[in-house]
Every structure is written in structure tokens, then in C-alpha cells.
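Curious: why this fold?
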Amino acid sequence: MNISFTRLAITTAVLAAMTATSAHAGGLERGGYNIDLLFDPSAYALEATTTYVNPQRDLKNARDTNPANGLGSNGLGGGSTSVRDTDSYWVPRVGIKAALGDSGIDCMADYSQPFGADLDPGRNWIGANDNTKTKIETDNYAVTCSYKWAMGPGKIRVIAGGFYQEVEGYKERLVAPNFYGTGNGIGRLDLKDNGWGGRVGLAYEIPEYAFLTSLVYNSEVKFDDIEGTIDLTEVTVPGPLGPAVPITFGKYAVTGEASVPQSLEYKIQTGIAPDWLAFGSIKWTDWSVLQSVGFCPATASPLTPCTSLDLLYRDGLTVTAGVGHKFNDQWSGALSLTWDRGTSTVINTQSDTWTLGTGVAYKPVENVEFRLAGAVGILTSGSSRSTTVNGVPFGDDVSYDYGNDVVTAVSTSLKVRF
């Protein structure tokens, strides 16, 4: 048996399964950071992956907290009490890895979209004053290197790297009812910024036993100067003289600050029998750093108010376990189970998630590999209610319940070694 090839063949199927299951996790995570390509034993490798995720979170029993304020979808506290909250999305990743001769140094560069959000309940539900559409995207550009040397029966590897991250997004919600026919009452917040982060880690591998374990820390990315605008040009309210002389609003600049959280991830895999591999991982993510993110103009006023993105997250914890098997010299497969602890506390819909993932790897020739993976998961039930934190009310626009919903994902990738 060629042990090195067995490890490589099964590991690629394992990576396929884990890619699909990690594409919808707690907080704003869409797969997070991934440096598995760095451990590829070939001198050079190029990999491209894309994952389609379809979370089917449905809100039900929605209740307008204050129907008298005229902020339901019809301006009278009305609207549907059930709605599909989530939208599907794609998660791309491209990376290249190179070994620097016989120095023991490996480096990889990659592009990914590790975090994001895509909510689209629309304007015809009773909670339109809370959210009609939210979209957040991140673009991450990273370089990671490692240095390895012999220690005992295997090799130890020290890992370090950095990444540049851009964030951009918007949120729309019903700010005022459209009683006057001069606007739809929708206000929109746009935002963007960029920041830097870094990572360090340690790994140990024994190729003879298909053993690999790693511990990697990713720093937070601070967005200290988020620039954006609040657009209230579609908002009209009665003036001091009544509806005949309404007050109109405009578009103005706002600033804010937030952070993408730090994380710590431990992974392990090992051969357990000829052509069989067991693997697992546990990851902590500091999502509690995101509570309420405020956005204000230089001078707030009744015509230029502040706004906020209210999350009230707690820390995330993700645990994965699975097995992989080599069927022959061309085909291998893997099966995994992932539990992700929900990051929502009293408001929002980020509950616990259980995901079953499977992946296959096909190697038609020595240096080319195709991977296909799928995942199906359960988004567990819960509710969103109004609460008060340090004297500040949150979630007081609408309350709702949600049941056990389904999330599915499909991932494909191509790797070329040379």
C-alpha cells in the first residue's frame, strides 16, 4: 500500500465534506478562514472551490410590537405574519501553494469570502420596520507561510500569515408609512471599510500514519472607520402643520466601527485502518464582540438621526467529526457531522445547527483532482423577543418564532498539482 497516496486521496475527500458543512455557520460566517492547501505535499498546487448554500429559515407568528405607530407593511401595523427570511448565496475560494525548494518553507496565497449575510424578508410582512433586506459581503486576500523540520517520527510546522479584508453591505427597512404618495417609506444604510489581520499556528504531521494535527489562531479585523450613508429620501412624515406640509429627509454620511472576530481552531486527522481515516475539529469564534454597531453623522439631529445594526451575539463554537475511506486509486469519500452552537441570544435567528456532510474526490490523472460535496442540516427552532441591555431596548420592532428549518449546500472544486 502506498501510504502517502492513501493519505492524500482520503484527505481530499475529507476537505470536500468539511467545505460544504462549514459554509453556513454561526454569526456571519460563510466558511471562515481555510489554510488546508498549505499542507498539500506537492511542490505546487492550484485550487478553486465554489459552494452554493440555500438556508431555508422561515419566520412565523410575527407580531408588531407597537401596531399604533403605523409601521406595519401597509402603514397600519399590518402585513404577513409568516415569511422566508433567508436568501441563497455562493461562497468562492481560490488559492495557490508553493514549496520554496528544500528549505522547509511552504507558502500559500488565497482569496475568499469568509463572512457575510443575505436576508430578504421583503416589504410585505409585519416586521418591515425591522428589516426588509440586509446584505453584507467580505473579500479576504491572504498570504500564509510555514516552516517545517523533523522532530521525532514526523515533522513540526510553524505557521504565520496576514490578510487584508474588505467589507461592504447595506440594510433596508420601513422607517415611516407611505401615507402621502411621495415615497415608499424605506430607509437604507450603506457601509464599507477595510482592515488587516494576522494568523499564527502550529502543526505536527506523521505521513506514515496519515496523522496531521494543527492549532491556528486568527486575529480579529478591526474596522475602525466604517464609512457609509443613510438614505431617507423616500421617507416623508407629517410636519407641524399636518400632512399638508410634510417633512422630507435626505441622504447623509455616517461613520461607525466594528470588528470581525478572532478565532481559534484545532484540527486532527489520523489513519485508523488500511484506507480509512478519522478526523475532527473544534473552533471557537469570538462573535460576542458584535453587540450593537452604531452609525451616526458628524452631528445628529431629528433630520439626520443615527441608526444601528443590533446583533447581541454570543461566542460561537463549532465541532466536527467524521471518517474518510479510499475506494481505489481514483476514488475516495468522506462523511462528517457538524454541530454549530447558535450565536443569537434573545433577538435574531442564529440558533444551533446540525449538519451532515459528504464528499467524494476523483483523480483521473496523477496531478488533477475533482471534488464534489453536499450537505444537509437542521436549523433548530427558537424565537426573537424584545429585551433591554444596560437600559437600551433591542428587538422592540417585531417579535417572531421560527421552527426547525433546513439548510442545504453543494460544493465543487478543482485542484491541479505540478
